[in-house]
Specification:
mainly alpha; 5 helices
Length: 135
């Protein structure tokens, strides 16, 4: 039987992170800030990711005991007034700055993830070979 997790409100350090991201967005694009609703939703989602160890809206909804509905969470991000790329850039800048990194290249790779054989039949799936395993 599964354990029921209850998320009442975002964790304090997550709230601080989201506030820092909002300040980074303002520095990047002064006219754009996250709304209070967007900040609360983002803080909840980051907390839910940490608590549930997954990125799944249905699990987030269950973990909040219905306080945060899946449709409301997805709608909040879909209809946000701030472009997603500004939010992405701001989050990366905050994380990089928190580690004191001042230069370098940022590369995102998930080549260590094993893929299903079915994925090759999907559109836009790139075929890559892992040099270590030969697969």
């Amino acid at each position: 039987m599964g354990t029921t997790l209850v998320i009442g409100k975002p964790l304090p350090f997550v709230r601080a992170f989201v506030d820092t991201v909002d300040a980074a967005i303002a520095a990047y694009s002064p006219r754009q800030r996250m709304s209070a609703l967007h900040r609360t939703g983002l803080a909840f989602c980051v907390t839910a990711i940490l608590v549930t160890n997954t990125i799944c809206g249905a699990r987030f909804e269950r973990a909040s005991l219905g306080a945060y509905a899946l449709a409301a969470l997805s709608g909040m991000f879909r209809h946000a007034k701030i472009p997603g790329e500004h939010l992405w850039v701001a989050r990366v800048r905050v994380i990089v700055a928190s580690y004191g990194i001042t230069g370098g290249s940022l590369v995102i790779a998930d080549t260590d993830k094993q893929r299903s054989n079915v994925a090759t039949t999907l559109a836009y799936v790139d075929t890559r070979r892992d040099p270590e395993s030969g697969g």
